[in-house]
Each structure stands twice: as C-alpha cells, then as structure tokens.
Amino acid sequence: MRRNFILLVGIASALILIYNGCTHKPMDIIPFPGPDTISCDTTSVTYPGTIYPILEQYCIECHSGPAPTGNLDYTDYSQVAYVAANGMLLSAIKHEGGLVPMPFERDPLDSCRIRQIEIWIRDTTFVRIGQEFEITLEQLNNRTIEQ
User: Fold this and answer.
1) Which residues of the chain have pLDDT under 70?
2) Rounded to whole angstroms, what are the CA distances from 56 to 5, 73, 85?
3) Residues ≥6 apart with Cβ < 8 Å to 30
4) Are the C-beta atoms of 116 and 50 separated by less than 8 Å?
5) Contacts of 111 (CB under 8 A, 6+ apart)
6) 3, 62, 100, 110 from 71: Cα distances, Å
7) Is the peptide bond before 68 cis (omega within 30 degrees of 0)?
8) What is the pLDDT of residue 17?
9) 3-state class of 117 per DSSP?
10) CA distance 1 to 55
11) What is the pLDDT of residue 142?
12) Which of 95, 96, 93 is nearest to 109 (CA)?
C-alpha cells in the first residue's frame, strides 16, 4: 500500500511539473518579429538597389503607364527626384502635410523603408533643371507629363 502511495505521489508530482512547465502568462509569449524589429540595412542605400525596389513594390502599379496617378510616372527617375527633392514623397509616405497618404488605400510603409527613403533623399544631390523643382502642389496636380 505504501509503495502504491509513493508511486501515485511520484506520478502526480511529475504531472504537476509537466503541466506547470507548459503554461505561460500572455506576457511570456514572444511575438514573431515584424519588419520593424528585423535589422534594417541603412548602410548602403542606393536608388537602384534599395529605393527602386520599394517603389516597384508599393508605387509603380499606380504611378506608371500612359496615365499615371497624379501625373507622376515613377519609372522615370526625374519624376521620382522631383517629388523627393520638394518633400512631397516623404510627406505622402509619412501621411503628413495634407497630401493623400501613400501607398493609396494600403498599409503604410514600415519604418525601415521610410528610413531608407529618408537616407536616400538626405544623401542625394538632386540636380535642378531650370525651374522644374519650383512647381507647387497645385501646379503638379494640374500639369501633364510629356511622354
């Protein structure tokens, strides 16, 4: 009888240890890292290697072709440079400045991609041809881009 009791106590103890070892509090769960918690490469940001792939994934679907949205064709570097140099690109992707938030009707870009675009704009010397970069937002909305 005593032997059965010790065996029963041993089994019960093992079950209690297993049960307690498999439980956790909600704060103990480590979430899957999202794009903002994975390392963000900002060491060598380039237009062809970093920025164009972002534009291709999130922007070019609407901002290209014979009638691009906002008259901005992002397959044309000069038009990307235009909105980057005058601050409209960052304002749109950061949802600031009264511009239509971009990407349109989609989730905003994660902070890594925004940071990469900020670095590219900061580190790029945009060449102004004539007064092209002096166009206002109202003029931009009304102008047509020659193809």
Assistant:
1) 5, 7, 9-10, 12, 14-15, 17-38, 127-147
2) 70, 11, 19
3) none
4) yes
5) 36, 40
6) 86, 10, 14, 25
7) no
8) 59
9) helix
10) 76
11) 47
12) 93
